[in-house]
Amino acid sequence: DVYQGAPTAMTLFVGGGPKVAAFAWGLRFLVMGLLPLAQNWQTALVILAALSLIGGNITGIVQRNIKRMLAYSAISNMGFVLLGLLAGIVKGDASAPANAYSSAMFYAIVYLITTLGSFGVVMLLARRDFEAETIDDFK
After folding, report:
1. Calpha distance 95→90 (Å, rounded)
2. What is residue 29's predicted lDDT score, i.e. its pLDDT?
């Protein structure tokens, strides 16, 4: 609802940056701070990632509003970022997590760039006194 009701420029700001910040927080807090408890928090993140992927994709596919669809896409994409965090530690072993975390960071940065591009296209296609909001507006 926030994505749909807010101006596209504000949605662009909210839709991109906080996702990369959430990844950085997750990496710093979970991996560097709570590494000895990885067996405990990995189970919760697996469940959150699965719910994020399933819920974001199923709910997003039925949307008619482009900004709502992009919002549910953001939910789904955060599930992929969580999977990247999960891939770094296998059975409590954190001997070689650098590749998994760097891959997840790369995904988060590419997601940020594509989100900026998506909302930029929505802003570009808007005309005076008309903001393209529904998928039919883009036909």
Report:
1. 9
2. 78
